Amino acid sequence: MLGHAAEPDTTAKKPQTYFVHAGAIKRTYSCAAGVDAGYIEDGVVHANLRRGDDRFLLIGYSEASRPNHPNGRCGGGIESFLVWLHVHGSTVLASKSAQYESCWRDTQGGPPEWSGQFCIVEYSLFLYNYDTNKSSLLHSKATFDSKAPERGLQIIEQTPDLFK
Fold first, then answer.
1. Which domain, by its residues, includes 90?
2. Per DSSP, which regions of 1-71 are E strands?
């Protein structure tokens, strides 16, 4: 079963378990109380860095938008995420994610690319204001610094002037 990555700073009601199957990482992790990292069945490990007893992972993964309904809305669509995890032992202490491609949320972007010490993904979310009958794109950029992995995934949004 595939699930979705957590929205940034989401609080879970109970710890979850998930798997990362990519490269040398084939392990089950449990989330600490208050951390919701979702469920990752398979992904691409973009970074696997250790700092003392802590591990920082940057994982990209995609899943079908509607795997059981291929002929309906988003039947052939893809949901893609870039997820940062701070792991101590077998426990995820913190997580943050960016959804850079989505049929459900009208998001387009990606894939993640490395530029020097930074992994970067840029994406746009289509927005529509029914009151003003205007549309716009919310441009976002998520970056990960491999020299400071404890900072996590930094997301910058360029808010459109949609609701004026």
1. 17-158
2. 17-22, 25-31, 44-51, 54-64
